[in-house]
Amino acid sequence: MKLKHIICSFLALAALLHSSSCTKEYVNPNAATKTEVLSSPDGLMGLAVGIRREWSVGATSALFNVVICNGLATKELTVLNTGNNTLASLEAGKGSLNGANSTMANLWTSANLVKAYAQQLIDNSSVIGDPGTKAGVEAYGLFFKALAIGTLSQFWEQVPTEVISSNDYIDGQRPGFKPRAAALDEAIAILKQADATIKANAPSATFNAKVGTDISLPNAIQAMIARFSLMNGKLDDALAAANAVSPTVLSVFKYDAVNQNPVYRSGFVSNNVVAGVANFGLTGALAPEAADARIPFYLGGATLSKATGFFKSDLDVIPVYLPSEMTLIKAEILARQNKIAEAIVELNKIRTKATDPLSVTAKLAAYSGSETQAAVLEEIYKQRSIELYLSGLKLEDSRRFGRPGPTDPNFERNRNFFPYPNVERDNNQANTPADPAV
User: Fold this and answer.
1) Which of 42, 193, 243, 414 is most solvent-facing, going by the fewest CB within 10 Å?
2) pLDDT for 359-391, tens place per residue?
3) 3-state DSSP call for residue 38?
4) Which three-class secondary structure string do you get for 353-380?
5) Residue in 46, 26, 24 with CA at minimum distance from that of residue 36
6) What residue ranges in 290-407 does DSSP mark as E strands?
């Protein structure tokens, strides 16, 4: 199927799904109908491509806004134009951030749209006769639905996980919310379903040709199980999943002249939006060692002007996850289980790494600090903050490691959780929870 038809099919369905907030639909006679998109293998594979694009392309995408919201809340980024009130309120955090913030709302909206689109893939994959193509489409939907739910759970105390159809929405039904622990459990269960789906039937050559293999589903599914299980305190599950991820197989979002790297294009291309912070925003014992090779990789050097890393051009790929995240997950779990010597072995794989499939290398000496649980966990947090810079994970990490929060002296994060966007409260007032204090 031609790329133009893939995108047109996705946009047609997007318009129809967006119409859930309206009472009438405006139909483009030149575009595929919702029925056409959802009733054919080509239409569903086109929708899969569109879901990936919704997540990863443009200034309203979930990926862009994860990087910006997390970066400003945890001192990874700073605002260059203080007149940009939306970004300034994210950087100030605390009571300055409220439901009217459009950047925060874009993260919420894009992730929830991806969740809805992904449910369409899951619900309609049965129309595909070929088992491998069906498995690929279904697993892709399951993966992105779980990714959306898990990502929302990093920023909000409660998350709507169900998808309301447009007809039910018009009839007055609205999604309920789950506490983030329950939402993470649901995301993990969805990922395990995706894993079982592709183990039963590997994605077909047709699916791989039309949707692509930039995301390695077997590895990306296990990586997200590891990530979300760690966040939810399921250490054994996280360790098993992290061990199942290949350290050499990448999963990335790729870009071109039309679909550009959104963080570079909308964040770093000018001197008027955001920039990285010297030393990754880390101070004191957490500050990077001067010889750390990740300083020039991510920051362009000690005297940085803006962040680089995976965001230095329109064409740079952005990882779905870094393989080294799995190593750090193993180190953290072992440390929390008080297996300190084993944790240090994993930690040193990060500190001494000289080669890496994504070129993220510290090239440092092995760890020589105190071999206590507290000291090793602090070093793991430091290495996560540097190795996974601008991956969108630091707010979650800061809470999990008990770092100083917004009401503490010398706070390292300016919010614990975000307020709920007005766009949700206005349309779902009965179910939207009260905003957290910070």
Assistant:
1) 243
2) 999 999 999 999 999 999 999 999 999 999 999
3) helix
4) CCCCCCCCCCCCCCCCCCCCHHHHHHHH
5) 46
6) 318-319
